[in-house]
């Protein structure tokens, strides 16, 4: 086996490992008066393992890192805005109710209780019009993209892949847009 | 076992100053101590962590703790791999290079590693299995069923309480008259509440109306009245009921809640909105029942146990990972420590031995300053001490030996210088010296001996008896025989040897050399050339004889001559007739007497001159001019005759200190002899057809500081045996004359500090060479 084919196989294995584990997040950017909002949905974020964690009474948290970035060809893409939103759910077996708290940059913005798992799933995986505070104004006719990365906690399995120094996402998605003024 | 590593000291090599010990960092006791403490601290930390995992929240274990532990495990695995690979590679390289003790160290390291790694791996495998099996037993089916059932019972109990409160609230709502509610008439509304309360132990009923601040505004719940049982604890607050009623009124639905109380109990509440005639909500009823603390605690305990169990089950993998990581880290730390310690111990055992071997090699190579640091007080330490003492002793002995060698070398140099000095003296000495060894073989022979005896350096090593077997050296044999005797007593003999064309008179002495204990070690033959001395003695004797002859003979000659002349005059003057025969006889006899007396007078004069030759009055002069002046006397003779004189005078001849009269006499005598040898002025042509020629030549020998005058003729020459006799008084090859000419010539030359010798000319003839010192 040549060195080139070995490298290709390793790369394919890495890509497959990431793709198999990561949930797809559908991202919909919205630009209004120079402000950027992001709606996203991670339908597969609440995996069967996650549901099991949730029903065990543990606090189950899905954390989304939402960024607005501008693509560049030869360097790292600069980040224009970043916000971290999370949804934490805890099940009370005694009452049979789920308590869901949503937080933005660490501050709780909503709290809701429900006995319906479908509703809880929605609260955990669907976010509408999350505002992103830009550090610089968008340039007219500029191409941008919104990237959302998901981290689930706690993890229910163990893999050496998690020792990857730059972290490993449980889900990711991105959507590009062109700012037309 | 030891208190520090050992290092070879090599002060002579300059790599380390004397007294300074070079240590590798890993061999430093302090580093070792710190490393040991770090290892112990790490192990203690891991044990503490293992003990504390039960106190740490499970999500923290799974999300936070697991990854550093795995990273530590991987780092330890890499460290162990590095330590093993490095040391095994070193052992392999040492074996490939056939380093000393490489095989022994490899075996030792292999045994130590096998004793360390194999048990550790077995413990790791079995421990991992135990951890996995133990985790599996946590979630056994009976335990799961019990916990599920407990949680189900607790949750159903609460649910049933909740449902009962909802039913009661709904029923009470239906019994309340709407107008009274709209009017908020507590008098009318009180009895239904009392009736409901009467059937509700530990219960409480609260009634709320609605107040609207403005048309279209959100209706607000207004507390109207509350009925509570006497058994109900008084530590509850109304705020929770107010909030529940407000929610129910706004949503128009039944709302439930559980309010924990400070005493440990809980109020199970249900709020039911009261619909008005127009469909809007006109109030709400909140029905509550108190659950005792013990019941509540039991239910919560069952629920919490269920939750913990479920959390453990869900996070079983990460928790197992944490435990396995801790166990693996402990095992790896022990492995690393044990491996390193094993390698260190192997090195500690083999290194002193190897260093001793290296030290022995270094000592053998002459590096006596090598020392080994005593690194321990055990047997190896004693061995190192003994080695160092041996090295020190060797160094001291070497120093003494070196001093002795240097002294001996100095002595040898002095002896060698003295020997060369003596050899030079012997070589330059006119005395011949021959040394013999104890076996009678020639050890040395100097130049004078070679010259006197006609030997060369090939005789060295040959028996002296064999050398003296040569015919001309036969006279030496008695002396050699005496030298081989034990004690010849310094025998001195005068020996005459025939050397080519002359005789050599030697005064020979044989001396025995004696060593320790008077042991005979050889002999020395000393040969002094006394030829010149004997010749001088002969000349002196001849001078004495000549003086006596001149004195004794000359005195009677004059009377004899006068008597003969008187006899002849008397015979002629008497007038007495004398027979002619008598007259002729007398005349003939007197003529003969007078003639012989004249001849005797001439002879006596020469003898007298020889005996009374005055000392030379030497002044610097030009020899070439003197030669020219002398030869000018022969101009007439040469013009009339057939002789030819060939002059070859050195124009660069330096001045010579001489007595001009005497040296002229020398030149004339030599030229006269040459003329006589060629047959006189009318000499015939030589048999080979060449003209009779006399060659006169002067040359300057700057190296010897001499001026040479040679007179050569191409006459018949002088036999070699007679050449040395030419210079003896009263020896002549001409058959006439006194034979004192060449004797006088030699005496003049000798008194001028020079020498004369006769040699053979080529192709025929004789060459007389006079050497005079240059001024």
Write out key terms for the chains shown.
heterodimer; A: 181 residues; alpha+beta; seven-stranded mixed β-sheet; 3 helices; 20% helix; globular; B: 775 residues; five-stranded antiparallel β-sheet; 20 helices; rod-shaped; disordered N terminus
What report would you give on this structure?
- The complex is a heterodimer of chains A (181) and B (775).
- Chain A is of the alpha+beta class.
- In chain A, 20% of the residues lie in helices and 46% in strands.
- Chain A is built from three helices and ten strands, in the order H-E-E-E-H-E-E-E-E-H-E-E-E.
- In chain A, strands 1-10-9-4-5-6-7 form a seven-stranded mixed sheet, with helices on both faces. Chain A has a three-stranded antiparallel sheet with strand order 2-3-8.
- The longest helix of chain A has 19 residues, at 3-21.
- The model of chain A has no long low-confidence stretch (mean pLDDT 84).
- Chain B has 775 residues and is an alpha+beta fold.
- Chain B is 56% helix and 17% strand.
- Chain B has 20 helices and 19 strands.
- Chain B has helices spanning 29-52, 58-96, 102-138, 141-175, 178-183, 186-198, 239-251, 293-314, 316-364, 379-428, 447-453, 464-467, 477-483, 531-573, 580-611, 623-632, 635-640, 660-678, 720-723, 741-751, and strands at 8-9, 203-211, 220-228, 255-260, 266-275, 281-291, 371-372, 432-437, 442-445, 491-499, 502-514, 520-529, 619-621, 644-648, 656-658, 693-701, 706-713, 755-760, 766-773.
- Chain B has a five-stranded antiparallel sheet.
- Chain B is rod-shaped and about 250 Å long.
- Chain B starts with 7 loop residues before the first strand and ends with a strand.
- Mean pLDDT of chain B is 83; it is low at 1-21.
- Classes of the chains: A alpha+beta (181), B alpha+beta (775).
- The interface between A and B is medium-sized, with 22 and 30 residues.
């Amino acid at each position: 086996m040549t060195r080139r084919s070995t490298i290709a196989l390793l790369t394919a294995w890495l890509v497959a490992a990431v793709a198999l584990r990561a949930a797809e997040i559908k991202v919909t950017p919205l630009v209004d008066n120079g402000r950027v909002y992001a709606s996203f949905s991670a339908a597969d974020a609440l995996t069967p393992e996650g549901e099991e964690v949730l029903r065990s009474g543990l606090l189950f948290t899905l954390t989304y890192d939402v960024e607005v970035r501008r693509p560049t060809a030869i360097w790292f893409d600069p980040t224009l805005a970043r916000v971290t939103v999370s949804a934490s759910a805890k099940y009370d077996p005694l009452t049979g109710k789920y308590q869901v708290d949503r937080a933005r940059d660490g501050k709780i913005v909503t709290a809701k209780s429900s006995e319906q798992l479908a509703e809880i799933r929605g609260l955990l995986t669907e976010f509408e019009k999350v505002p992103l505070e830009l550090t610089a104004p968008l340039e007219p006719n500029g191409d941008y993209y919104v990237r959302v990365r998901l981290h689930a906690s706690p993890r229910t399995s163990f893999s050496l892949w998690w020792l990857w120094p730059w972290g490993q996402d449980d889900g990711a998605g991105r959507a590009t847009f062109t700012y037309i003024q | 076992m030891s208190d520090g590593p050992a290092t070879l000291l090599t002060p002579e090599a300059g790599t380390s100053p004397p007294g300074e010990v070079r240590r590798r960092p890993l061999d430093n006791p302090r580093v070792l101590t710190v490393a040991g403490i770090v290892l112990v601290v790490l192990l203690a930390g891991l044990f503490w962590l293992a003990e504390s995992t039960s106190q740490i929240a499970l999500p923290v274990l799974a999300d936070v703790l697991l990854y550093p532990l795995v990273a530590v495990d991987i780092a330890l695995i890499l460290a162990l791999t590095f330590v093993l690979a490095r040391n095994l590679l070193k052992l392999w390289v040492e074996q490939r290079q056939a380093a000393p003790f490489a095989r022994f160290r490899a075996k030792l390291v292999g045994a130590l590693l096998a004793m360390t790694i194999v048990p550790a791996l077995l413990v790791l495998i079995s421990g991992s299995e135990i951890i996995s099996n133990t985790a599996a037993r946590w979630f056994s089916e009976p335990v799961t069923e019990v916990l599920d059932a407990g949680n189900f019972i607790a949750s159903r109990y609460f649910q049933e309480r909740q449902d009962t409160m909802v039913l009661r609230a709904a029923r009470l709502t239906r019994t309340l008259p709407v107008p009274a509610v709209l009017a908020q008439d507590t008098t009318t509304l009180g009895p239904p509440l009392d009736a409901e309360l009467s059937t509700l132990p530990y219960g409480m009923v609260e009634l709320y109306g609605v107040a609207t601040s403005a048309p279209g505004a959100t209706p607000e719940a207004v507390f109207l009245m509350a009925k509570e049982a006497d058994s109900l604890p008084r530590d509850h607050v109304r705020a929770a009921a107010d909030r529940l009623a407000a929610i129910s009124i706004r949503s128009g639905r039944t709302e439930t809640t559980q309010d924990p109380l400070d005493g440990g109990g809980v109020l199970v509440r249900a709020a039911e909105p009261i619909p008005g005639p127009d469909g809007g909500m006109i109030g709400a009823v909140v029905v509550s029942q108190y659950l005792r603390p013990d019941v509540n605690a039991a239910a919560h305990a069952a629920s919490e146990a269920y939750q913990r169990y479920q959390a453990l089950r869900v996070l079983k993998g990460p928790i197992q990972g944490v435990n396995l990581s801790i166990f693996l880290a402990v095992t790896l730390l022990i492995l690393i420590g044990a491996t390193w310690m094993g390698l260190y111990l192997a090195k500690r055992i083999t290194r002193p031995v190897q260093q001793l071997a290296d030290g022995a090699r270094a000592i053998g190579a002459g590096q006596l300053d090598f020392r080994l640091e005593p690194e321990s007080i055990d047997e190896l330490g004693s061995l190192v001490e003994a080695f160092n003492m041996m090295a020190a002793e060797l160094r001291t002995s070497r120093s003494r030996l070196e001093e002795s060698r240097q002294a001996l070398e100095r002595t040898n140099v002095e002896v060698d210088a003295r020997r060369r000095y003596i050899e030079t003296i012997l070589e330059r000495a006119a005395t011949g010296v021959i040394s013999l060894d104890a076996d009678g073989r020639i050890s040395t022979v100097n130049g004078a001996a070679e010259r006197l005896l006609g030997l060369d350096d090939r005789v060295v090593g040959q028996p002296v008896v064999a050398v003296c077997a040569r015919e001309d050296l036969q006279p030496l044999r008695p002396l050699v025989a005496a030298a081989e005797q034990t004690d010849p007593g310094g025998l001195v003999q005068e020996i005459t040897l025939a050397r080519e064309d002359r005789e050599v008179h030697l005064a020979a002495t044989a001396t025995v050399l004696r060593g320790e204990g008077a042991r005979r070690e050889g002999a020395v033959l000393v040969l002094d050339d006394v030829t010149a001395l004997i010749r001088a003695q002969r000349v002196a004797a001849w001078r004495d004889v000549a003086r006596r002859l001149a004195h004794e003979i000359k005195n009677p000659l004059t009377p004899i001559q006068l008597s003969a002349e008187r006899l002849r005059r008397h015979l002629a003057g008497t007038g007495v007739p004398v027979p002619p025969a008598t007259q002729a006889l007398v005349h003939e006899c007197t003529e003969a007497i007078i003639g012989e007396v004249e001849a005797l007078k001439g002879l006596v004069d020469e003898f007298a001159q020889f005996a009374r030759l005055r000392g030379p009055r030497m002044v610097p002069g030009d020899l070439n001019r003197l030669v020219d002046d002398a030869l000018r006397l022969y101009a007439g003779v040469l013009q009339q005759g057939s002789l030819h004189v060939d002059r070859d005078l050195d124009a660069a001849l330096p001045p010579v200190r001489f007595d001009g009269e005497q040296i002229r006499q020398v030149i004339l005598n030599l030229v006269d002899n040459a003329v006589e040898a060629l047959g006189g002025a009318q000499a015939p042509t030589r048999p080979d057809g060449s003209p009779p020629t006399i060659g006169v030549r002067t040359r300057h020998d700057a190296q010897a500081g001499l001026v040479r005058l040679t007179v050569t003729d191409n006459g018949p020459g002088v036999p070699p045996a007679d050449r040395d006799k030419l210079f003896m008084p009263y020896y002549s090859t001409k058959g006439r004359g006194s034979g004192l000419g060449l004797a006088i010539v030699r005496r003049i030359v000798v008194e001028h500090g020079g020498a004369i010798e006769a040699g053979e000319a080529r192709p025929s003839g004789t060459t007389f060479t006079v050497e005079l010192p240059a001024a």
